[in-house]
Amino acid sequence: MLLEKRITIAVDGYSSCGKSTLAKALANSLGYVFIDSGAMYRGVTLYCIRQQLIQNSKPQVDLIEKELDKIHLSFKFNEATASSELFLNDENVEKLIRLPDVAANVSKIATIKTVRDKLVEAQRLIGRNGGIVMDGRDIGSVVFPAAELKLFITAVPEIRAQRRKKELEEIGVIITLDEVIANLMERDLIDSTRKESPLIQVEDAIVIDTSELTREEQLQKAIQLVKASTCKSSE
Length: 235
Ligand code: CDP
Hints:
Blueprint: E1 8-13, H1 19-30, E2 33-36, H2 37-50, E3 54-55, E4 58-59, H3 61-67, E5 73-78, E6 83-88, E7 91-92, H4 100-109, H5 113-126, E8 132-136, H6 139-143, E9 149-154, H7 157-170, H8 177-193, E10 206-209, H9 215-233
Residues 15-16, 19-20, 37-38, 41-42, 106-107, 110, 136-139, 187, 191 line the site of cytidine-5'-diphosphate.
């Protein structure tokens, strides 16, 4: 699709509601860059786990802050999977950051202000020229408050949990539905009640409920919204 103005698209929502899947498909169909900001928080969490900076389930904030300069994150596009993969200090960690021990700790790490400041700065730099679809929790509210299009994705909890269980099985992680639900609920609670940039639905966001929609239907809906906002922003 050829669109003249390359806009910024913010996609926010609760855990596992289909944000990344939709954001990636939308970016691919527009020829835009897709950034999964959650992968960056997961990358920092993986580093903290490896360096034992989380003790008795508590992030050691002082120690983590001292290590922040040693954490280098970047995305590289994998042609075979048509998606960007996260590199932590030059190691491809795309699969490792999806594992349950990272999921169990990531929302705690994401409450740390200095971690958020570092990642938000990097995200703004990646998106400075527009032509980007970024998904996360604070993209429309904090990272790109002036984004031309803001989507807020929702889905009913059972569907979210079943989708996440299937995704995990695809990478060899066998986990019960109850365990998946517990993790999603815990992360939703931490993400929406934290002091620093909590997950909120901003006023100018458009809600897409993915519960009853196929991937193609979600994509078509999003493309319509892009067309509408591209016309509006070039008026
Ligand atoms: O894939 P899923 O929706 O389960 O989560 P994710 O997008 O990979 O994000 C993992 C965690 O990172 C979230 O639960 C948040 O705690 C944190 N996060 C955040 O605080 N801000 C963002 N922009 C993105 C993720």
